[in-house]
Design brief:
This protein is of the alpha/beta class and 710 residues long. The protein has 30 helices and 16 strands. The chain is 48% helix and 11% strand. Strands 3-2-6-7-1-8 form a 6-stranded parallel beta sheet, with helices on both faces. A 6-stranded parallel beta sheet has the order 11-16-15-12-14-13. Strands 4-5 form a two-stranded parallel ribbon.
Length: 710
């Protein structure tokens, strides 16, 4: 017997042999309604693809009558590949939108005559037209937030006339625009779109649903075509997608849904886990199976994830680890965000030196604006990185615009006779950014307006840090510092450590994961109001934790800036997971402000606090003259080049230039002195310490380049 592709069809029993007991239960449940609660890393895709292949191999399913639905093009492609390899290549695996668009394009001309409206790639142009007609701002952040709200309304079956009422009950909000105005923009957008013969992605689902609901011939033909349905990531379905699925089924029960209520993190976009949790009530006779064996993460990671969810309304299945034990999950409290970013970057560099590929590591955070400190710390250390789901900090449109305006302001001040180029960098920065819409008070709600504010606020905070560290700094000095930071972070990389928000990390996994910035106000995020919103934040943290295969680190900073007030607390979600830390003690026991500032690094030349990662790395202010031995520095560089060549690694993996400069400046004479230099830990001390100390002492070393007199 051969599969349609020409391959020899697999033996049904062999398909079952490849599964664990719970996965096998899924594969054997070929008929009737089936619900699979699949915990993180439990092999849900393996289970459902083997179920389909087993149904085809046993003759229960005709592959042409099976429709497997998922949420991303990547997931659909992976499913098609697996099904083809399992002898079920004739099965359709599509996203909701792809399946709906295919049906709408085929049936629309036959039912309504003429071609289907043209699908627009982006709503923003049409929304801009609608916003202008209603005298609403048309900056990109506002338009993106309006687009998100229109999408939510449409997938939630909320019409423009009902929006204002429903938005109030659901807590929906677009910053700076009242609900009645949003409703008018929504209605105008629909009119503009229809007038131009266009449709958006939500209309694709609405058109397909309308065809099925209004024409029995269409419904009958679709139901003859597809008899068996499988839907992955069912916790993410919207009311509109659920309605379309019901129309496809037409009252039949040949449906298998797979999902994890603990990974419901898109409620703000209209997703609802109620369809997954309430599936047995809506489909009597449901066979329910739980996948609990986690093949992704170590027992230590799994135990932490289970404890995070235990006893909460967000709890899904209790995972059971299948991997060998690994290191304990680390929970680390830092004095400030600069220190946090530096320590994480040091650990990443050490892991790379020990053989972990950069692509197998990730730093995850709550919002995009948090990436900046890590971008800088990693760039200085030569750790390659890629930012997923967002532009690098200095590539973001609002940041580029802000720096350009600040540069112009500094030049204007100098040209007007203010020779210092702007005497108060903080006041000047606030004034310039206020012209871009920045305010001291953050915007309410989530969205692109909030993201934009956070990026601008990060620039204001940098100005404040510079003013505190260098009291006589000018706006021109601050702009020069911004330019330096941007230059350091723009090194092109082919691959690197992933920097991503927790939302962007969904569906991915790495050997090493650092969850950073996990303090109250960020996790849960400050605008998460009410129990439901807070629980979604817990689920978001769970998603982040379960991305780690082998090593997981969770960290937070007590202050934003070096020397700042240590007023933050670690996330409430970490209670019961982490050990006690300094922040758990009353301020009086921690020693107050003096003790908080004790660990702040100071310039060895002028004594001022060091405000940036680069300055802390070399132990002195950028403006202070270098006091390192340049001849020693060149000998160290020559030795490093030879070692890097011997080990077949980039030079920065041995030591970065900044670390070599610090060695040439401090001239340590023993291992303890080396360990006090940023960028040198126990691993590098063991590997390179003897050579470095010999070079400092002007003694010969085994490396042929050690005596090279460059």
């Amino acid at each position: 017997m051969q599969a349609p592709s020409g391959r020899v069809a697999p033996d049904p029993d062999q398909l079952l042999e490849a599964l664990d007991p719970e996965q096998r239960d899924v594969a054997l449940a070929l008929r009737g309604p089936v619900r699979v609660l699949a915990g993180a890393g439990t092999g849900k895709t393996r289970a459902i693809t083997h179920r389909i292949a087993y149904g085809v191999a046993t003759g229960v399913y005709n592959p042409a009558e099976v429709l497997a639905v998922t949420f991303t093009t990547r997931a659909a492609g992976e499913m098609r590949t697996r099904l083809r390899d399992l002898g079920a290549g004739g099965v359709q695996a599509r996203t909701f939108h792809s399946a709906a668009l295919r049906q709408a394009r085929y049936f629309w001309p036959r039912v309504y005559g003429g071609e289907l409206p043209v699908l627009v790639e982006s709503k923003l142009g049409l929304l801009g037209n609608a916003a202008r007609r209603n005298r609403v701002g048309t900056d990109q952040a506002t338009l993106r937030d309006l687009a998100g709200e229109v999408e939510w309304a449409k997938v939630s079956n909320v019409a423009p006339d009902d929006y204002a009422r429903v938005a109030q009950t659901r807590g929906r909000e677009v910053t700076g625009i009242d609900a009645a105005t949003v409703a008018r923009v929504f209605a105008t957008y629909e009119d503009v779109k229809r007038g131009q013969g266009r449709m958006d992605m939500e209309d694709v689902l609405l058109c397909a649903a309308a065809l099925l609901a209004e024409d029995e011939r269409v419904a009958a033909q679709v139901r003859r075509q597809y008899h068996w349905f499988v839907v992955d990531e069912f916790q993410d379905v919207s009311p509109l997608q659920a309605a379309l699925l019901d129309l496809w089924l037409g009252g039949r029960d040949a449906l298998c849904v797979v999902g994890d209520p603990a990974q419901t993190i898109y409620s703000f976009a209209g997703a609802s886990s109620s369809f997954l949790l309430g599936f047995p009530a809506r489909h009597p006779g449901t066979t329910s199976v739980e996948l609990v064996r986690n093949y992704r993460s170590t027992p230590q990671v799994v135990a932490a994830a289970n404890r995070l969810m235990a006893g909460t309304s967000s709890a899904g299945v209790a995972l059971r680890a299948q991997r060998e034990p690994g290191p304990e999950v680390s929970f680390v409290e830092h004095a400030d965000e600069v220190e946090e970013a530096e320590r994480v970057a040091d650990e990443l560099l050490a892991a790379m030196s020990a053989g972990t590929p950069a692509r197998e590591m990730a730093v995850l955070f709550r919002v995009n604006a948090q990436s900046q400190a890590f971008e800088e710390a990693m760039a200085i250390r030569g750790v390659p990185y890629v930012l997923r789901g967002a532009a690098r900090f200095f590539d973001r449109p609002e940041v580029k615009q802000a720096v350009s305006l600040l540069r112009g302001s500094a030049r204007g001040a100098a040209g007007a006779g203010d020779g210092d180029g702007g005497s108060d960098p903080v006041a000047e920065t606030r004034a310039v950014l206020a012209g871009m819409g920045w305010t001291e008070k953050p915007p309410t709600g989530r969205g692109n307006v909030r993201d934009r504010w956070e990026s601008l606020q990060a620039i204001v905070s940098q100005a404040q840090e510079m003013a505190a560290a260098v009291p006589d700094a000018t706006l021109a000095d601050f702009v020069a510092d911004l330019d330096r930071r941007a230059a350091e972070q723009h090194a092109p990389v082919a691959e690197g450590v992933t920097l991503a928000t927790l939302h962007a990390a969904k569906g991915l996994e790495w050997d090493v994961v650092h969850l950073a910035g996990m303090h109250e106000g960020m996790m849960p995020i400050v605008y998460a109001e009410g129990p439901a919103a807070v629980e979604e934040e817990r689920r978001l943290l769970y998603v982040g934790m379960t991305r780690a295969r082998r090593r997981l680190s969770v960290s937070w900073a007590l202050a934003r800036s070096p020397g700042g007030r240590s007023s933050r607390k670690p996330s409430r979600f970490l209670a019961g997971l982490r050990p006690a830390s300094a922040s758990d003690r009353p301020a009086s026991e921690r020693g107050g402000s003096a003790r908080r500032r004790k660990g702040v690094a100071h310039c060895r030349e002028c004594g001022q606090p060091l405000a940036t990662t680069a300055e802390r790395r070399i132990g002195r202010c950028e403006g202070c003259p270098a006091s390192y031995d340049e001849e020693l520095f060149e000998r160290l560089r020559a030795w490093r080049a030879a070692r890097a060549g011997d080990e077949k690694v980039p030079a920065y993996v041995v030591f970065t230039d900044l670390t070599l400069q610090a060695i040439a400046e401090v001239r340590p004479h023993d291992p303890a002195g080396l360990l006090r230099i940023n960028g040198i830990g126990a691993t590098k001390l063991d590997r390179y310490g003897e050579d470095v100390l010999a070079i400092v002492a002007a003694e010969p070393v085994s490396s042929p380049a050690a005596t090279d007199d460059h």
